[in-house]
Amino acid sequence: MIADLEQLEFPAHSYDLAFSMPAFHYVADFARLVAVIRQTLVQGGQFVFPIEHPIFMAAAKPRWIQDGDGKKSWPVNSCALEGVRRRDWFVPDVVKYHRTVATTLNMLIAAGFCIRRMEEFAPTKAQIEDMPALAEELERPMMLVISASA
């Protein structure tokens, strides 16, 4: 199914699982979307989704900074200031909505979800051995994955 997440509607109590690829950081009214998904799930249904991590999204000018020793760091500016972030991401001027982890979790709780698990992506040693470029991902999480139940 292809649908506009800002207008999404489903029949009540119809699904056991709601899963999304990374897309919710593009949604302006995330509270509405979460409420729709909660109403769609049966009691005990699962909701699993990844979003861009707020640390990844917070930077005013997202880019790696390298010190004199070659150590990379990620700038974190205005992390507590939520709202629109415009980024070049495959195409110029993509609109994303930055929220803190607390705001995201509290919206889920307000909609009636129980937070089951949260993961911040970091590559394993084996993954870095297979793809050395992943080593920089140890400096800041890029994705946040949340699992909640209805």
Task: Explain the overall architecture.
The chain is an alpha+beta fold. It has a single domain (15-149), classed as Rossmann fold (3-Layer(aba) Sandwich), CATH 3.40.50.150. Helix content is 21%, strand content 33%. It contains four helices and eight strands; from the N terminus they run E-H-E-H-E-E-E-E-H-E-H-E. The strands form three sheets. The chain has a four-stranded mixed beta sheet. It has a two-stranded antiparallel sheet with strand order 3-4. The chain has a two-stranded antiparallel sheet with strand order 5-6. The two termini are 22 Å apart.
Secondary-structure topology with pairs:
Blueprint lengths: L14 E5 L10 H11 E12 L1 H5 L6 E2 L5 E2 L9 E7 L1 E8 L2 H10 L3 E7 L4 H6 L12 E7 L1
Parallel strand pairs: 1-2
Antiparallel strand pairs: 2-8, 3-4, 5-6, 7-8
Can you count the beta strands? 8
The biggest sheet amounts to:
4 strands, mixed
Across the major sheet, the strand order is: 1-2-8-7
Give the terminus-to-terminus CA distance.
22 Å
Radius of gyration: 17 Å
| CATH class wording | Alpha Beta
Architecture (CATH level 2) name: 3-Layer(aba) Sandwich
What amount of the residues lies in strands? 25-35%
Keywords:
33% strand; globular; 150 residues; two-stranded antiparallel ribbon; 8 strands; single chain; alpha+beta; 4-stranded mixed beta sheet; 4 helices; Rossmann fold
Give a quick summary of the entry.
With 150 residues, the chain is of the alpha+beta class.
